[in-house]
Structure formats: structure tokens, C-alpha cells
Amino acid sequence: MPGSITKSKTAQRVAELLGAREGREHLNQYGWVQGMPIVMATTAEKLIDVMGLVSIHERAVLIALASAENHQVQLMHVSMPNAVLRVVAAADEEAMIESLFDLVARQEMTEFRVKYWAHSAVAQRIPPFVPQTHQPACSYAKYLGT
């Protein structure tokens, strides 16, 4: 049950990001497009299981990973496996999804493959979204006599 609570909080945070124009613009810079599937994962899930969910969509996806402890959300763009990429060794079947996030955090982008994929895919880190502080378009101070 804790995993489903974490996933629902993750979904809520992702929905907030997608609900903001600035959030969508941020994701657009990293390959997100309207309607792109988003796979929710927790740190307790195996990489191969999460990539099984990715495979179902047969297209690029975003993976949202939340920590059960602090519910911080990390995002990653994952391409479809592609024959033009060099075939890298398959990840260890016991590897957790968090290990791919850790690798991508260090390298920004990496090729990877899981056991059931004939080709490699590319994972790209999406940096955290930091909302910009908006200044009013015009100041009403001159009308208030200040």
C-alpha cells in the first residue's frame, strides 16, 4: 500500500506541473509532448518491471519517480529502443529503477537496455522545474500616489 500512496502523490505533483504553462514549457525542452505517456514508479521497483510498463506504450515516455520518504519527484525522458543505437549490455535483472535515475543524474543522458529489448534506448534527465518569480506587467503604484 505505501507504494500506491507514493504513486498517487507523484501523480498529483506531475499533474500540478502539467497544469502550469511554465511547467509544460519546461518539459517541452526535454522532449515531452502533449499526450505523452507518463509512467509512475517508486524507488522499490525493479528497472526491468518499469521498462515493461514503458514498452506497453510503444513510444517515448516520461518516467516520474518519487521517493517514499520525502515524495520528491524526479523525471526522466525515455526514448523507444532504436536499431540505430549501439546495443549496450542489458542491465542487471535485479537493478532497481533508482539506479538508472542515479546514472542519468551523473551523465544527463545515457544509452541503456533491459533484457527483453533487442535494441538500446536513451534516457535523459529532466532537471527539476523551478517556477520563475513573475513581476506584474505594469505597476499600479503611480495611480496610488506612492
Overall description:
- By secondary structure, the chain is an alpha+beta fold.
- The chain contains five helices and five strands, in the order H-H-E-H-E-E-H-E-E-H.
- It has helices at residues 2-19, 21-28, 47-57, 97-107, 141-144, and strands spanning 38-42, 61-66, 73-78, 109-112, 121-126.
- The chain has a five-stranded mixed β-sheet.
- It is globular.
Broad shape: globular
**Into which percent range does the helicity of residues fall?**
25-40%
Number of strands: 5
Oligomeric state of the chains in view: single chain
Count every helix, treating DSSP H or I runs of 4 or more residues as helices.
5
- Rounded to an integer, what's the Rg over CA atoms? 18 Å
Trace the largest sheet across and list its strands. 1-2-3-5-4
Order of helices and strands: HHEHEEHEEH
* N-to-C CA distance: 56 Å
Give the low-confidence spans.
135-146
Strand content: 15-25%
Secondary structure class reads: alpha+beta
Main sheet: strands, sense, barrel: 5 strands, mixed
Task: Return the average pLDDT rounded to an integer.
Answer: 85
Topology of this protein?
Elements: H1 2-19, H2 21-28, E1 38-42, H3 47-57, E2 61-66, E3 73-78, H4 97-107, E4 109-112, E5 121-126, H5 141-144
Parallel strand pairs: 1-2
Antiparallel strand pairs: 2-3, 3-5, 4-5
Quick recap of the structure?
This protein is an alpha+beta fold and 146 residues long. It is built from 5 helices and 5 strands; from the N terminus they run H-H-E-H-E-E-H-E-E-H.
